[in-house]
Amino acid sequence: MKKRKILEFAGEWALKLSVGISLAFLFLFLFMIFSKGAGRLSISFLTQMPKNGMTEGGIFPAIIGTLSLTLLSMLIAFPLGVLSGIFLSEYGKPAWLVSIIKTSINTLSGTPSIVFGLFGLSVFVIGFNMGVSILSGSLTLAVLILPIIINATVESIKSVPFDFREAAFSLGATKRQVITRVILPAAAPGILTGSIISVGRAAGETAPILFTAATFYTRRLPKSVMDEVMAMPYHIYALMTEGTAPESQVPIAYGTAVVLLLLVLIINGTAILIRYRMRKRRNW
Amino acid sequence: MKELIKVRDLNLHFKELHVLKSINMEIYDKTVTSVIGPSGCGKSTYLRCFNRMNDLKDAAIDGEIILDEENIYSRATDVTSLRMKVGMVFQKPNPFPKSIFENTAFGLKIQGKMKGSEIEGRVEQSLRDVWLWDEVKDRLKDSAMSLSGGQQQRLCMARALATNPEIILLDEPTSALDPRSTNKIEELCVELKKEVTILIVTHNIAQAARISDYTAFLYLGELVEYGETKLMFTVPKDKKTEEYISGKFG
């Protein structure tokens, strides 16, 4: 009897301790980044060009670069991913082939992102002769997030009850109508959440854009998608590894990290909000 | 009595499984016909033959079902327009996660032939037909999920009626409902048969006796007996029928 009580007590505390340690890491992480970088934040940090060999000034071009890379990669990957997901869930045959494809996609999403960088370099930058550019980088990021979007679509469609399909078919709907009018509206919250989270992933990745889009330093903004750009994650990397004046550049790197963190936080927050509002409306 | 549907030598296989065995029967216009039988006898599968819902499950079907002089299993049949002529209500109420209005208007909207005002008129008529209008007229924009189970099932009936079908298939429509809602659906069937032919599958023998004009008894995929309900429940011809309706097995 006593032993059971001790085990009960120890078990509960092991759980509490684990949560505590995890939270401690999380807070330490946020504290370190923000305490070192928050001081840099100001309107001019966000809106100015880097100055004096990146020892002063802001990170405006890096913000613009990250935003354009993220946006373009989404424009490419979202429609492609959702449509592929619909095909795999609704049309794909035979079942064994579909399941091999799904497994491959899952495996792809676990591939280290630097491998995608190499792929982008050889295919887009060199193969298609797009050079180091926003387009090459966005395509590489699109390939990286495509599996996430396909998975989100397949899983969300799977969670739509069969009853809805049956009801729609019984009313004389064609397969296309069943998909567009019943399945997609019901699956939309899941698809959107998954996709928005992949936006955060695209915004934060360094390795895929390392050889395909990012440049160490530029004083001008990109004029077209064929230009190379600065990007926040790479900016941090560059300042920390190749900077010549660490005493003034390290704080800029932390400042950039805070901006990047806030950006991803806003994106994921939006996803959570969308999911919450759509879940409230649905109740099956 | 005018014959609306003729079933001729209908056989259905799911892979190796022979589910329906050489069924022949006629369904009469503007009547309620019930299909009874023990669980697993194939009665739901049989019902789904009439709007070709078994197509979704890769069933192999031979034989004919003739509706309006045409075999619905001929190559020329357009399945989607067939399903607008043959509506269906399922065992579990399954409204879409949309508004009450959108649910009722669904069939009309996918046809894409009607204007908004016509659709509104038809939605109101269908909801009146199932005695739901007064309960929902002030909240047509609310989610259908906010209705009670019985109301949801009547909404599903309204949804099926909106496209003016000739036949409504009801697949154990009251088995998930409380007794009061069940009563209402039963009364509704008797009322609706003035306009539409009703084919209902039920595991409730008393229900078949209460509402149907004709009854078909299905056992192990065979049509054992088919005839007027009154006759079948008083002087069944087959011994199996007698045993089933007197509750000896099921």
From TrEMBL, chain A:
SUPFAM superfamilies noted in UniProt: MetI-like
Ranges that cross the membrane: 21-39, 59-88, 108-128, 134-157, 178-200, 252-274
Domain ABC transmembrane type-1: 63-271
UniProt keyword annotations, A-Z: Cell membrane, Membrane, Transmembrane, Transmembrane helix, Transport
Compartments, as annotated in UniProt: Cell membrane
GO molecular function, one term: phosphate transmembrane transporter activity
GO annotation terms (biological process): phosphate ion transmembrane transport
Family: Belongs to the binding-protein-dependent transport system permease family. CysTW subfamily.
Protein name as it appears in the record: Phosphate transport system permease protein PstA
Species of the source: candidate division WOR-3 bacterium
Gene behind this protein: pstA
